[in-house]
Amino acid sequence: MNGTYDSCSAVSSPSTGRRALDLMCGSWGASKCSARKWFTYMGTTEGNPYVPFQINYIEHDEPVVPAAEEQELVPLNPRVVPCSEKLDAKTPACSCVDCELSCPRPPPPSPPPQPFVIYGYDGYAVVMFVVFLVCSGLFVIGACLCQSGGNGAGATWDGEQELRPHPSAIHGDDDAESGYFERLGAKTE
């Protein structure tokens, strides 16, 4: 019973746009239906005009010997065909709309790439640190070793007017009073 219910529980009814068990499970509907409720409704003549006579489904897994008879009753145990398989050569399997097992399976996700590591540290952080050190070192070396050809007074830029010297540079004691960064800035000009 459960295998048949599981195979048919997701089948939709195109005329109503709902699941077929909404029509075939009585007042319970598809959301509250179970295998036992479905078979009970399908065998009950009361409230179901499509059942010509009462059918009592008895769920057993082992043979039963009734008291009045000498022959044992073997429960019907046919193979339940999953909804994703054909019943026979003439009957197709259920579609993906009615049966989740019929839907194509996506390929499994690829494993995540290995992280970029240099000597056990994050590779990107190591590369950025090295680039920072190299650029900073080049800047400091360039600022200290490359001196301009004078004190900057009278220097021109692209042949335009002459740059005016700093007012304190007129007295000549500019270098003594200026700080390290002012001298570094003057050297980079």
Features:
two-stranded antiparallel ribbon; transmembrane helix; NPC1_N; 4% strand; 189 residues; membrane; transmembrane
What's the short story on this structure?
Residues 2-122 form the Niemann-Pick C1 N-terminal domain. The chain has helices at residues 2-8, 21-24, 35-43, 123-145, 174-177, 180-188, and strands at 12-13, 18-19, 117-118, 121-122. By secondary structure, the protein is mainly alpha-helical.
Describe the protein in words.
With 189 residues, the protein is mainly alpha-helical. Helix content is 30%, strand content 4%. The protein has helices at residues 2-8, 21-24, 35-43, 123-145, 174-177, 180-188; strands at 12-13, 18-19, 117-118, 121-122. The strands form two sheets. It has a two-stranded antiparallel ribbon with strand order 1-2. The chain has a two-stranded antiparallel ribbon with strand order 3-4. Pfam families: NPC1_N (PF16414). The chain crosses the membrane at residues 123-146. GO terms for molecular function: cholesterol binding.
